[in-house]
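Hi U.,

Before I forget, here's the chain from the pilot set. I'm dumping it here mostly so it's searchable later in email.
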Amino acid sequence: AVLVSDQPLLPAADQAAMHARALERFFAPWRQARASLSAREISWAVRGLGSKQGYAENLQPFPQSRWVHIVALQDLAKYPSMSQSAITVRNTSLRVLPSSRPFFLDPAQPGEGYPFDYFQNTALWLGTPVFITHASLDRAWYYVETAFANGWVRSEDVALADDQFFAQYESRDMVALRRDEVSLIGQGVFLGQTHIGAIFPLQRRSGNTLTVGVPVREGAGRARMVAAELGYPQASLMPLPLTSRVVAELADAMLGQLYGWGGMFENRDCSSSMRDLFLSFGIWLPRNSAQQAKAAGELMSLEGLDVSAKLSAIRTWGRPFASLIWLPGHIGLYLGTDARGEPLMLHNIWGVRTALPGGGEGRAVIGRLVISTLRPGEERDDVRRGAFLEKVRGLTLIGGKKNPPIQ
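Structure:
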């Protein structure tokens, strides 16, 4: 069993400073005046995917007519056509191109096909500030810049915000959800349902009851705020106390959630699991795993070390519940060690590589948020020993100063 306590994992002043920066980043899209990306930058997927054989939702070759239509919908000749602050009024997918339908690569290849939809960027939870820079040709999509990712969202999923709304909504007193699938009810009306990682402005507090402001979309497409009441343990004032006990409680609420590539089906992948977990504590993490490893604190390189040296370094320098273990394309939270001294990791993982009997490679699917050692799947005969550990590249001490270099 992993030991937890009520001891702070960071000095209070450090957490307070990180919290202030996190809120500044969260609301940053509302400070924008114009698009920060070029037409070439927003259309990278046309070049990156256009030369590849894609597959549609029926796992048949992606129809060329559909591809031509989606590319045209970008209406790049008119980009940028808008400069408008807005907010999401429901959970929505941030898409690489203006289409809700998937684009898979060869489903016959391990690690491709479902669920790896290359049009899916990330999920945006209800209440995310965005800046709209462009509308699609059919007006069904907006291109938005957020504080952590950019892409296309359905236009009905956002509401336009102005200075009056900012004054009501933007607050230093925010409330963080502590449960997934929390229904927000205002005056008996369902306003939306969202998850850990979503935060809302506090309007008032009465005992354990927190009244928050929830953005809704009016008929003209503008944002209005409606009050909703939340109680413990659904939500708490942000930032939550950064202790191993509270991190464990939040992780327990997420544990077992099914894997969601880029937030597909409102599930999480590895990096969004870490991002949502730590935002509640006022710690801002970028979107992808490599950026998180570099931005969360001090990254200690484990490059060039053998498996034994990596394990020793993680045990020696890793701070349980306050360190990230990173390998290319994957990231998770270090929890300490088990009874045998094996480091434990909380991570949302699709699967591990397997060796097929006739040669070639396959996948043993895990497909959920789990706690494992750094040897996932090694109880199987078809998983090579040390394969996961060999890929580990770094240990990030969240908000911390780098320890002495590893010898």
